[in-house]
Amino acid sequence: MTARPLAASRPRLVLGSASPRRLDLLAQIGIVPDDIRSADIDETPIKGELARDYVRRIAIAKAQAIDLAPGDVLLCADTTVAVGRRILGKPESRREAADFMRLMSGRRHRVLTAIVLRQDGRTRDRLVETTVRMRPIGVTELEAYLDIGDWQGKAGGYAIQGAAAAFIPWIQGSFSAVVGLPLSETAAMLAASGITMKGSRP
Predict the structure, then answer these.
(1) Which residues contact 166 (CB under 8 A, 6 or more apart)?
(2) Between the chain's N and C termini, which has fewer beta carbons within 10 Å?
(3) Is the model's pLDDT at 198 over the cut of 80?
(4) Among 24, 67, 78, 120, which one carries the catalytic annotation?
(5) Would the pTM of this model clear 0.85, i.e. be above it?
(6) Is residue 171 classed as helix, strand or coil in its secondary structure?
(7) According to the model, what pLDDT value does residue 8 have?
């Protein structure tokens, strides 16, 4: 009787992000990282840098800053918000968060998320762009939103899955990308590296 060959072992997945949102999103599609690490890099935009170039540069820099064992797959991502050519990072104060929200009030903005996969010296990346429209935000409701504190640590000063959902009647693109990780695109990239939903094989 011929012995059946052993199935190839699944590569170890390292999530290069300390974001609990990205961990939760991966769990949503049945993927659990074997390790979680984060890179400490300078995320300051370069003067005149376009938002799509910025977010891709930061995601790649994160991936390059993390050490990997041979065969490991590293997943990194970065998300930014852009109004025209202006990049809105994470507000450093309540006042800056208010400025961001007033800027987006009653108009559309773009949310750009770059995904980077690194494995055995090879790096692949993908950019996902989503358009989000915010309705006009009144003074009283803006102050109430700021009081909640949901703006802290969020690109653009909001999380679409949080209190700011009350201000967003319409998006075009990937909802999960606005949260922090475009799931369809991420799942396809991971599958190409041998990582699929828990309990399944590529």
Answers:
(1) 141
(2) N
(3) no
(4) 78
(5) yes
(6) strand
(7) 53
